[in-house]
């Protein structure tokens, strides 16, 4: 499978990285229906850890079975499938080689008291990722949490180990915790900062949430206003995040959030596309829908990223 | 000993796992009077650590002797015997090879202040398990405790090491601690979540408590009600836990709790069987009874799991 | 030196242990005037660490010199001499091979604030014990302290390393800390629990204090009363601790406490003997007495354990 | 490239250091337009981490691109370019060998609550520096912070590893935290102390801020006054810092702070030069200016250090 | 250089220690003008770390240069020179082999808040000491601090590593912290206890402060009074510390404290000599004096230890 010029140009930005990492990035960028376009759609299924099984899977009970998600990602022609250790292991053999997988190596849960702090447990390793034939590891950081410095130190260690083994690293950069207001969690200045931190830490693919036009930090607000940075549309805000990811030298994808109407999902994707983002990580909006409906939605999203919808 | 088709089907769910782990799971599933049925009864004796020697063994003083439990598990035809380092060592030579053993590698005790938190000490290692010829390690997690993230990190490390050495991992998933109400410790939404977390962490065998029809988390309650998940009977609740264990792709056994009437013990077993669970871990209800009585009870439980009682 | 049948029977209880550990237990059990009887008297000198030099040695200033204790243990025909790193090193060469030594690998001191917690520092290693030709390591745990889980984890690690090198492990199990009342420190239910924990952790020799007939834990009190466990005499209480040490499968010795009248010391020893205990660890009651007096006392204690006094 | 006598004299002060470290110091001292003079100008770009991307780069949007800074350092003839992992990686291949690079291995950010404390995360390693062909690692310490002892221990470990691999170590010594008043952060007694601590820890190049004539510590104030130490001018204060850096045996450079008028920047440089300092680390004052303007400013600074302006 | 009988007798007390350690002790005991007498004077220069450069060196500005101290120790004929990593490195090559050096491997500073606790940072390693050709490592413990247990664990680890490499260990035992009153820091019962703890931890050379006749601990006070221990003179108190150092089996030196009158310094030395101590560690009283004056003072101290003054 020969990489397209678009993909080769993206890979060229990863200077000094091991050929193994570039090969895995190439594999994901050439996979499925968006293969070769420089765009990606990733299916992430770690909501069972975050919210529990009933909230995640009861709306579409077939999704209790880990095989369901592998099959959905394959049939929809997605770029990759991301999940924690247990679910990946449950289908590693059956689906070996059919879709790139991302091992989510840390996870939070809904059974934590406030004093336990905003943090996640490291629940898998680079060795696990290698053993299971994954293309990348995925790791969540919480910029703004009192645990953030520790989380940064964990991921740089794991990233180094992963890259040395030829695995790529995806960082979920989710502002949250003691230094972040509720509105700040989706403020554009914070989102751009979160993307930048992921890039600084060496992420190969950055995952952030779509943002609002709120500005949380007074010092940043001043600059946004003084320099006239456009944050009036979702596409403009996506563009600000792309610029903060080394001026577009790093792949950045955006997450969809909780289940919502299909039109809203499509609008998000058009904004990501128009702002120069590289795609979507979309979970609950697909696997909580009936399979046929989910496949239709994913097909339309692919069309959007191809500029056909 | 040729594995039955039932057992081979169970083993096939452990995709990508080492042959060593599968061999140990097979050994336990083919052991004793339930051998080959896909059902298990495990004798766990760590109550001396949890509650002290008098509360555990004074009702049946023969049980002060570690040899007593090995012999009970063998004579009753059970699937495995689980205990901490000291007691396993005290009979490791005498009973070598006669019953699969599970080394309980962490333990709590009743001499802890509230500020010490809900946690356990790691009191044995994978090396100990190998040296003592064990089939598996057993580890307790407390989802909901402020120590939970640390406990998750400990068991994923030990599980990885154990699996690499060909040992299986049993996770005791007991919701407890700062984020869990008293009723919540046995609420069905929490029990299913606890089983799911164990599966996500890579448990080969999951151990949870039987649950009530209480729903602790408001967000989960909404979903249980909206989706009409049946939690009205113990068997239905067992089925919810089984579904949350990767739709039955992982072995799940249920614990019996403190000593109670024999009929109640039998009713529990029937519910586990009817809900699709894989069996019982039953300690105090057997070793705190006189030996003859305990053997009778275990015989009847075996009949129940065989569908004969 | 051929081991007696009594000693061989004791060693047979250490199933699955390395020959090295058994050899060291044999060495201590065959040493001195109690050699071969299955009884032991150990001289422990870590009070300088715990209480400072003046309180420990000023009553008998010869005892400031580490050589004094080696010589006392040898001349009295004791089973072993236990001390921290510094004092053992100060006589390791002069007395090499003349008496088994136990390296006390952790220690507390009297210069700690309340907020520093009930804990000890690990002040020596298994490597030190090997280098100094010791027979065993000694380690104190504080069941009931907020540091207890950490202490348990430390000793199981050190015990594993020691056993692999052919060294035995003695656990000083001293209930103390946030979860223990003052009376509870010597309550019989707590003492038996403490002995049991040491056994569970893999101690080869267990050291506990003699206890009173107080029962601290309400749940335990209920069982002691319901089952009619005899705790009316010191001998009965010793027997309860022996039973809690795997029904006598582990060596258990009792400590003497602060200096007191000779008759009281002898009464303690008779109770230990009559309750089935394996002997005494006796420090201040010997080295704070003038040497001649100490030798007389130790001679009489040996006679008591031999059933002659 | 033959080292000048001036440079050889400087290197001679690094007694007992590995030839690899000396070679990297030599490389930086012989690089660019100040090569051979014993003076240095370093371009540091870690403000994106510290203050976020908008505050750092929006005033001169070309600076969002990591290549911009490499090119600026090269075109201006600077001694070295310092940045965190991500940005160095983004240009490591394109600019390989064209300018010495310093990998900033720890970083702070503006998204931390007060309770998170004054600390930084270690976000890169010596291995990363080697892989990326760097000349040195850079590390920030916060003397006066409750995290200071930990930071000291981190850098001495990393410095040892770096030196053994032939990499130099630059320490950013920034007084900050619980023991430092706001005025104290730039007080001359604190600045000199901070420089001295960096020297004691083994820094090869020391980076401190320019200071005021405030004296924070009463004990130090007494000595400054009693001994009549001149702190009336910036040059005199630079000289005090130089003297505190082993009487000039260690290279010391001064940072410029936030963006300000060009004349002020030039005055600072003259004071550094006249006080015997080795140069400037200057970031925002250059990259937040338009490129042509920045090159002019850097050219003038070079002239100042050469004594021509 | 043949060791004197006095020195050989001292070395014989270090039973079971490596020949490497004994060789380094011998080297220091045979060095300089006190060589062979069993007495030592050590020059320690870590005050720049503890109090900052101005308070330490401004009274005698030549002392800002690390070479100054090497030269002073050599010219005065002292036994050894002790300093942190940075200053030792600054002269390691120039003065190689001319005076035994002690690498001070941990250090405190005056920029710490109360909540940071009484602790020190480990700022150098055994590897550093070997690389720099040192004879020993030096380590400060704070008995009575909440950090004391951690400090004890650090030094026993470093001592073990050092001894295995043939380096001696000097322990600065300075009571300080939460459990110690201001008067208690120099109380004789605390000083003797501090010396004893250092000996127990395996120190080859013990450094304590001279003490007052205050008794801090009530339990100790009782014993001092009951046993009639003489603490009325400085010499008597030195003797109590010597006795607490394994009855004189360990070298013990005393520190001089802040700068004071020369007569007072001489009186201290006579008390150390008369009480059986092994010498002085004297820093500020020498390097804060003008060089000629310092050499005179050191000459007189040497005479005192030789019994000539």
Please describe the topology of this protein.
Five copies of one chain form a homopentamer.
Chain A: H1 5-12, H2 19-29, E1 40-44, H3 47-51, H4 53-57, H5 66-75, E2 80-83, H6 85-89, E3 101-104, E4 106-107, E5 121-122, H7 126-131, E6 136-141, H8 148-164, E7 168-173, H9 188-200, E8 205-209, H10 218-226, H11 234-244, E9 251-255, H12 262-274, E10 279-281, H13 284-287, H14 291-305
Parallel strand pairs in A: 1-2, 1-10, 2-3, 3-6, 6-7, 7-8, 8-9, 9-10
Antiparallel strand pairs in A: 4-5
Helix pairs in contact in A: 9-11, 11-12, 12-14
In short:
The structure is a homopentamer of 309-residue chains. By secondary structure, chain A is an alpha/beta fold.
Describe this structure in words.
Chains A, B, C, D, E: It is an enzyme of class 4 (lyase). Chains A, B, C, D, E: This is fructose-bisphosphate aldolase. Chains A, B, C, D, E: GO terms for molecular function: fructose-bisphosphate aldolase activity. Chains A, B, C, D, E: Keywords: Lyase, Schiff base. Five copies of one chain form a homopentamer. The first copy, chain A, has 309 residues and is an alpha/beta fold. The first copy, chain A, has a single domain (5-305), classed as TIM Barrel, CATH 3.20.20.70. Helices cover 43% and strands 14% of the residues of chain A. Chain A has an eight-stranded parallel β-barrel with strand order 1-2-3-6-7-8-9-10, surrounded by six helices. In chain A, strand 7, helix 9 and strand 8 (205-209) form a beta-alpha-beta unit. In chain A, helix 9 runs parallel beside helix 11 (234-244) and helix 12 (262-274) runs parallel beside helix 14 (291-305). In chain A, 61% of the residues are buried. Chains in contact: A-B, A-D, B-C, C-E, D-E. Chains A and D meet through helix 8, helix 9, helix 10 and helix 11 of A and helix 3, helix 4, helix 6, strand 5 and helix 7 of D.
